[in-house]
Amino acid sequence: MKRRDIFGKWFIIAFLAIGSLWPGGHEVKADAPVQVVSAAGGDAFGIAAWSDGTVAGWGYNKFGQVGDGTSIHQYIPKKIAGLAHVTQVAAAQSTSFAVTAEGEVWAWGQGYSEYVNDDPVLPFQKRELPSKLEGLSDVASISTNGSAGIAVHKDGTATLWHIFYDSDYIKQIKYVPLKGVTGIKEVQIMGSKALLLDQNGKLSSLNIYNDFYGRYRTENEIKEPEFLKADVSRFAISWRDIFLLSKDGTVLQLNEKSQKFTAVSGLKGISDIQTGYNRLFALKQDGTVWQWNYNSGSKAKPFQVKGLTDISAIWGTTGQTGFALNKKGQFLAWSSEYNAGLATGSGTENSGSNGSELMITPVQQALSWKVNGEDINFYATSGLMDNKLYVPYTSVFEAMGVSISHKEVKASDPKAVPRSNTEWSFAYGDRNVSIVQGKPNEVYFNGKKSGAPAQIIYMSNSTLFPLEIICEGLGIDLKWNKATGEILIQS
């Protein structure tokens, strides 16, 4: 199987429901779960801020954009260490940011999370954890296009920031106050410009990038903002495509050639808009969600995303995925790309009016691990398959006192190909669980064949084992609170 196919397969099984939406599993009584307050995503990864001030990240992680301090892909949301009191997250391409209640901005991912050399556990995959942007303070909200960002301060002013390299090729972060910008409610970057929405619903444009020199403008080069003839409640941008939400609930799109706004047919009674890659997401006042794949042909029209009802908030990404929060507090994701990595799973498959297929999946709460009362953290990803927990070789087993070994055994059928299979053994005290790989796999408890189903999944950076079956066979107690993500193991 190709690496991309494996990657897509594991995202299909990774994001299962919070709470008790699916039966099965050994779980304790569910506590009241925290809710998502902000979500964002880039290319095949996502981040979310929760009502307890924590942040979780998951997905494609080559540049450390998940925020766990590695470049290992994380197929289950993972809590990001060192972040607290977060009120908003933002992401684009391969970078991530968070804003705290104190007005701080934290950054990680491409350009911000450099490699950490000579780490004894991860010599080639260790990345820096999120770092605070020291040049920003009293920030209310931020936006980013991946290479730069703009912070709106609590007093309504704004600051542009971006990475640049000096004459000695030393990386620095430059902060550029946007002069003449006051009373700002929201700002986003559109190509070489910044679009700003003030508290009165007035929209203005500011040129922030020098196309001739190929760099962001200095403070002295930035001119006063130019007001556009639009009176809106909010706006959404995908690269150079801009959409406006009018105060009457209709949606307008900017025509680049005529520089005029035209109404998007079929969208009325809209309360919020967001964007993905070449798609517009719209939340109606009745709690339904609509999507428009506006670059898929002249006949493409907005269609309802079936399965998303009673929605109270939506968020966009720079990929093909959207996020939603329903009135029950469930955090959902939907996507039309098999390998999007954010929203595929055993959810509802939908066909829009333009033939697009969407999959809706509740996003799993970030998992936390305690073994014999001690917190356990590990680098490689955990996983979920058929609502069962899977963990890597270097995870909880050592803390549990479980020893692992493997050997090659001859196939029971002499005509079988291959002629031998790998047998993994997990020993604890006088008990043993063995999994012999084959078609199908065979599970043995103390040498006696069991009918328990078990998979061993080989990933590009780890091997994942079925934790619950192993604990059952070894007599180790495991409790999983699916509402909070807490997993308690007592050996």
Low-confidence stretches: 1-30, 338-355
What order do the strands of the largest sheet run in, or round the barrel if closed?
Answer: 13-14-15-18-19-20-21
Architecture per CATH nomenclature, i.e. the level-2 architecture of the largest domain: 7 Propeller
Domain module tally? 2
**The CATH topology of the largest domain:** Methylamine Dehydrogenase, Chain H
Tell me the radius of gyration: 25 Å
Average the pLDDT over all residues and give the rounded result. Answer: 86
For the termini, the CA-CA separation is 37 Å
CATH superfamily of the largest domain: Regulator of chromosome condensation 1/beta-lactamase-inhibitor protein II
Q: What structural category arises from helix and sheet content?
A: mainly beta
**Overall shape:** elongated
For the biggest sheet, the summary is: 7 strands, antiparallel
Percent helix: under 10%
What is the number of strand segments? Answer: 43
The CATH first-level class of the largest domain comes to Mainly Beta
List the total number of helices: 3
**Beta-strand percentage range:** over 45%
Helix and strand topology:
Layout: H1 3-14, E1 36-41, E2 45-50, E3 55-59, E4 74-79, E5 86-92, E6 95-100, E7 105-109, E8 131-132, E9 139-144, E10 148-153, E11 158-165, E12 171-177, E13 184-190, E14 193-198, E15 202-207, E16 209-210, E17 215-216, E18 226-238, E19 241-246, E20 251-255, E21 260-263, E22 270-276, E23 279-284, E24 289-292, E25 303-304, E26 311-315, E27 321-326, E28 331-335, E29 348-351, E30 357-362, E31 368-371, E32 374-376, E33 383-385, E34 388-392, H2 397-400, E35 403-410, E36 420-428, E37 431-436, E38 442-445, E39 448-450, E40 457-458, E41 463-466, H3 467-474, E42 477-481, E43 486-490
Parallel strand pairs: 31-43
Antiparallel strand pairs: 1-2, 2-3, 3-4, 5-6, 6-7, 7-8, 9-10, 10-11, 11-12, 13-14, 14-15, 15-18, 16-17, 18-19, 19-20, 20-21, 22-23, 23-24, 24-25, 26-27, 27-28, 28-30, 29-30, 31-32, 33-34, 34-41, 35-36, 36-37, 37-38, 38-39, 40-41, 42-43
InterPro entries: Cu_amine_oxidase-like_N, RCC1/BLIP-II, Reg_chr_condens, Ub_ligase/GEF_domain
Protein name: Copper amine oxidase-like N-terminal domain-containing protein
Keywords: Repeat
